[in-house]
């Protein structure tokens, strides 16, 4: 209780001190912009402002836009017209990333109408994102990631049509994704991951410049929409998404695809493996039953990592995986694959393939003895199958018992 009273008392003195020192009369910086800077600083718990933080350098005895050296760090301004002696400087960038600041984002932030960049990432801001942020019509980068912002994302966010980067990841935002987000046609990067968003993904194919979309670790449900054709990174993991994944087949520039831990069903079809720039694929922990791997003879295939574990895939292991020259990490574990491991796999394992996981399937047959000489540094597991393994092969330890293998119930 005593600390709480002291905190309130010192905060009052701190606010009074700042307002007393603010030299508005002689400033070349816009008076309204200075007032916003004061409001930002006074909305922060002073005990969270460390001596090495940018905010500690905001000395209101000085003019924010005329200051050089180590004062008003994290602030960039316009240069006033030298001909117009009445012209004032305006704040165009605020960057307080990683300062560990605790407090609220003042609604007066909307008065910085020339602001182009706002980066408050990796702090401890809490409460809602102010509605007034929609007044910042020149904003190209809005980064509020790794804070404690809560409530819904501003409904009218779509009026910020110049936004190129929107990152509100790792907060406590909830509600549905605003439909107006489809108006942000300048967006190249959209990160809403690690929040509490619900509802469906809006149709994003109108955001034709979008190259990265991350909505992982939310509570999003429904089928996949159509995505922009230029997208390179698509991260939708740890949601409640369902249906087929055919919309992905059109994304010719896709490099990274993560659909893990959802409720997708149907097939992991050959269309995905024909995407020429695809490097990393994770479709694990879903309900897929079919796995089609097309033969890839073109040396331009970029596929490096493939993870399909914890699905309901059945049939034989796909031989065509050996036709992908850049493939090094493969996880086919925890499925219903049966039959023998293709002999073509052995020539890859220990050479181009550095990680092969086949555990918890219904595989049978003999594993070659010579693997003991080629598996140095190889990771993975063949355990919990019905394989006959050479003595000392660590990857093969922990096979099912004979009764389990011949009893008809392999899982």
UniProtKB/TrEMBL annotation:
Gene Ontology CC terms: membrane
Annotated compartments: Membrane
Chief site of localization: membrane
Classification via InterPro entries: Leu-rich_rpt, Leu-rich_rpt_4, LRR_dom_sf, LRR_N_plant-typ, RLP29
Example of a GO biological process term: defense response to fungus
Record's keyword annotation contains Signal: yes
Signal peptide stretch: 1-27
Boundaries of every Leucine-rich repeat-containing N-terminal plant-type domain copy: 31-78
Alphabetical UniProt keywords: Leucine-rich repeat, Membrane, Repeat, Signal
Protein name: Leucine-rich repeat-containing N-terminal plant-type domain-containing protein
Organism (species): Solanum verrucosum
């Amino acid at each position: 209780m005593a600390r709480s009273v002291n905190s309130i008392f010192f905060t009052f003195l701190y606010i009074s001190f700042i307002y007393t020192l603010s030299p508005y009369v002689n400033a070349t910086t816009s008076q309204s912009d200075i007032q916003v800077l004061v409001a930002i600083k006074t909305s922060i718990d002073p005990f969270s402002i460390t001596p090495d933080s940018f905010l500690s350098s905001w000395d209101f005895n000085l003019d924010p836009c005329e200051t050089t050296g180590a004062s008003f760090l994290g602030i960039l301004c316009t240069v006033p017209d030298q001909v117009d002696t009445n012209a004032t400087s305006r704040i165009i960038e605020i960057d307080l990333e990683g300062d560990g600041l605790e407090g609220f984002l003042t609604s007066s932030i909307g008065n910085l109408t020339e602001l182009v960049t706002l980066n408050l990432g990796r702090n401890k801001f809490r409460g809602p994102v102010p509605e007034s942020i929609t007044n910042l019509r020149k904003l190209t980068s809005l980064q509020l990631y790794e804070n404690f912002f809560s409530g819904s994302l501003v409904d009218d966010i779509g009026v910020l049509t110049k936004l190129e980067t929107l990152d509100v990841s790792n907060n406590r935002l909830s509600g549905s994704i605003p439909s107006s987000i489809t108006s942000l046609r300048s967006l190249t990067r959209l990160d809403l991951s690690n929040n509490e968003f619900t509802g469906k993904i809006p149709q994003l194919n109108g955001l034709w410049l979008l190259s990265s979309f991350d909505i992982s670790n939310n509570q999003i449900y429904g089928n996949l929409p159509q995505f922009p054709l230029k997208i390179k990174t698509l991260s939708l993991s740890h949601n409640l998404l369902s249906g087929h994944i055919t919309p992905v087949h059109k994304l010719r520039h896709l490099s990274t695809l993560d659909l893990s831990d959802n409720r997708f069903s149907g097939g992991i079809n050959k269309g995905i493996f024909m995407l020429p720039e695809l490097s990393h694929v994770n479709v694990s922990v879903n309900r897929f039953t079919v796995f089609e791997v097309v033969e890839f003879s073109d040396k331009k295939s970029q596929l490096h990592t493939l993870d399909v574990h914890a699905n309901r895939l059945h049939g034989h292991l796909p031989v065509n995986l050996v036709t992908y020259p850049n493939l090094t990490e493969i996880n086919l574990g925890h499925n219903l694959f049966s039959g023998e491991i293709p002999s073509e796999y052995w020539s890859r394992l220990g050479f181009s393939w550095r990680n092969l996981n086949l555990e918890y399937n219904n595989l049978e047959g003999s594993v070659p003895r010579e693997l003991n000489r080629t598996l140095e540094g190889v990771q993975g597991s063949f355990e919990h199958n019905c394989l006959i393994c050479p003595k000392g092969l660590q990857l093969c330890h922990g096979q099912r018992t004979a009764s389990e293998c011949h009893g008809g119930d392999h899982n």
